[in-house]
Write a structure and sequence with these properties.
- It is a single chain.
- With 272 residues, the protein is an alpha/beta fold.
- The chain is built from ten helices and six strands; from the N terminus they run βααβαβαβαββααααα.
- Strands 1-3-4-5-2-6 form a six-stranded mixed sheet, with helices on both faces.
- Helix 1 packs across helix 2, helix 4 packs parallel to helix 5 and helix 8 crosses helix 9.
- The structure holds adenosine-5'-triphosphate.
Amino acid sequence: PSAMREVQLEVPKVLWSDIGGQEEIKLKLRQAVEWPLRHPEAFTRMGIQPPKGILMYGPPGCSKTMIAKALATESRLNFIAVKGPELFSKWVGESERAVREVFRKARAAAPSIVFFDEIDALAVERGSSGGSSNVADRVLAQLLTEIDGVEKLKDVTIVAATNRPDMIDKALLRPGRIDRILYVPLPDAKTRKEIFQIHFRKMPIGDSVDLESLVNRTEKYSGAEISAVCHEAALAALQENIESSLVDSRHLELALSTVTPRISDSLIHFYH
Ligand code: ATP
């Protein structure tokens, strides 16, 4: 039984144009990852080093995974995705070995991005789960060793995502490690509009649909929830008539009443 089976080289096909809004984050990531690869001499001339690692944090379903994939696709980087919890194994030593394996693959595939989703699961603050030699502590230690690497992490960028930045051990976020920290917020009005438009491009939409009103009524919806609204509306149209060729305002109305935002006000405050 091996956790390493989870480690796979992927070729994502997500484009920047598949992601509504979030322009500032897109730009910052391109500056951090794409520019140093494309123009290494410019960075040397300025005397600056590209970051080794970037952390995106924010509420669930707001495109962190899509952004990491688009960065890989558009910068033509190999992409290795790991979900934090999947790396854990009950076999002693297996989890650390899995972490080493991830980085070995990333170096072999350079230039590459290693994407750690739910990194909080891998890097919980030490001591917070009791005992000093538990698996979590050893995995974190291994992760730090890899990042500081004797074998220099050349052209490998770590991109990590979490909904719980407070859970991450501060050692991981020190300068020279994952030290670029970007907040990926709930979509604002402009972003929500673009997310609807992206989904509507793929479905037949009736004239009765009022985009502005949808935008105004989806405050506090995540991108994933807006996507669910579109999906539900299409199903409602089909349920009415399986030959149905249009999604109209009634279907969206129905979808808005079934898909409601899950984020609480306290969680919104938590990120600020
Ligand atoms: P989690 O924190 O739950 O892992 P995430 O922030 O990584 O979520 P994604 O998995 O990237 O979010 O997004 C979930 C889905 O929501 C996407 O597959 C997409 O359909 C939709 N979505 C979210 N944000 C956007 C956006 N800005 N533009 C287009 N689609 C979006």
